[in-house]
Design goal:
This protein is α/β, with parallel strands linked by helices. It has twelve helices and 14 strands. The strands form four sheets. Strands 3-4-5-10-11-12-13-14 form an eight-stranded parallel beta barrel, surrounded by five helices. Strands 1-2 form a two-stranded antiparallel sheet. A two-stranded parallel sheet has the order 6-9. Helix 1 runs parallel beside helix 2, helix 3 runs parallel beside helix 6 and helix 7 crosses helix 8. It is globular and about 55 Å long. Bound molecules: flavin mononucleotide. Flavin mononucleotide binds next to strand 4 and helix 9.
């Protein structure tokens, strides 16, 4: 195993000062009845802080729109009770020496959740579609769009007010912002649509500008992006480095500090002719800090895990090779930290025989 000291250097950017380069990836857990994070949720995040995760990103937590969620147990990031729950979370994380940001989220047009719960109003998105040919909700009006942008801004302001260290906007994985990015789900003919990705980025840009306005210049703002969607794993929004630059540099200009580049496998090259991954290219074309993610330390990817597949621990050598080369600044880790709050310490101390991998049992409770 290569020396992993690269992972254990501190990182500072504006409000964010973290002791190592490991980020807990945002992971929906659905343990917040009626959208209110419980004491168990606070204890779960506290354990990751005690386990010396550098930065914890919360599970996706939804903004103040009636139809922003398809699951009543996904936490809200609005309303007195939910925000009191989050206050307890961040107090616990800070008192254990950790740092944390909420991932603020609007799901957009969704399939109904298996619980049968539905929001009080129809799902909403750019054109009523969550994938080609699947019309499951309303097309947002100008007033809906303006109110949604304002709700993202309020959530970011609340994140800062409660004492979080940064905020992440969920712009990935086929949810609302991504439904605007993707030409297959954004068929609008107004200023929020268009033939090109930069045109379809207008909604995201307005969200970012509002978030930046609410939190000020010195608070770190992250956006999570993905080329893939659940409806199309091989999808590319940007087909070339030039298209990537035309997509993300306007997002940086609008106020993004860090791009969190979601891949299922971090070692997959993003474009032909280079082994750079998504985070590597995003850093190269924007000059911004980036986070990589996807099967770090595991031999199987996360969507297969939803189907019940287990994963075994795997070497970090390839990750460290890329990090030593300067491809990205931070590394997000999902399932290993969901299953084991002590993963970071085991990695640091090279206690490889104590790594436990991931099995679907870990989904069932907050360990
Ligand atoms: C149970 C679970 C829930 C997830 N929920 C979210 C989420 O709320 N927001 C998000 O951006 N990604 C979510 N993801 C994706 C993870 O953040 C991460 O990108 C993915 O698991 C790949 O990392 P890994 O291979 O280290 O697990 C989720 C993944 C899992 C396993």
């Amino acid at each position: 195993m290569t020396a992993n000291s690269t992972l254990f250097r501190p990182f500072s950017l504006k409000s964010l000062n973290i002791k190592n380069r490991i980020v807990m990836a945002p992971m929906t857990r659905s343990f917040s009845p009626d959208g209110i994070p419980t004491a168990d949720v606070a204890a779960y995040y506290r354990k990751r802080a005690e386990g010396e995760v550098g930065l914890i990103l919360s599970e996706g937590t939804v903004i103040d729109r009636v139809a922003s969620s398809n699951d009543s147990a996904v936490p809200h990031f609005y309303g007195e009770q939910a925000l009191a729950g989050w206050q307890n979370v961040i107090n616990n994380v800070h008192s254990a020496g950790g740092k944390m940001g909420p991932q603020i989220w609007h799901m957009g047009i969704m399939d109904n959740h298996h619980s049968g719960w539905v929001p009080a109003q129809p799902f909403e998105g750019p054109s009523g579609l969550n994938r080609p040919g699947s019309n499951k909700g309303n097309t947002m009006t100008d007033a809906d769009i303006a109110d949604t942008i304002a709700a993202f801004g309020r959530a970011a302001a609340d994140a800062k007010r409660l004492g979080f260290d940064c905020v992440e906007i969920h712009g990935a994985h086929g949810y609302l912002l991504d439904q605007f990015f993707w030409g297959e789900t954004n068929l609008r003919t107004d200023i929020y649509g268009g033939k090109t990705l930069p045109e379809r980025s207008r909604f995201a840009i307005e969200v970012i500008k509002e978030v930046r306005k609410q939190v000020g210049e010195d608070f770190a703002v992250i956006i999570r992006l993905s080329q893939w969607k659940p409806a199309s794993y091989d999808n590319k929004l940007a087909h070339t480095p030039q298209e990537l630059e035309a997509w993300i540099n306007p997002l940086a200009d609008a106020g993004v500090d860090i791009f969190h580049c979601s891949q299922r496998r971090f070692w997959d090259a993003e474009f032909e002719g280079s082994d750079l991954n998504f985070a590597g290219w995003a850093k190269k074309v924007s000059g911004k800090s980036t986070i990589t993610v996807g099967s770090v330390g595991l031999n199987g990817e996360f969507l297969a895990a939803f189907g019940g597949a287990s994963s075994e621990p795997s070497s970090l050598d390839e990750l460290l090779r890329r990090m030593d080369r300067g491809d990205f600044d931070l590394v997000a880790v999902g399932r290993p930290l969901l299953a084991d709050p002590h993963w970071v310490q085991k990695i640091r101390d090279q206690r490889n025989d104590e790594l436990i991998g991931f099995s679907k049992e870990a989904f069932k409770q907050l360990i």
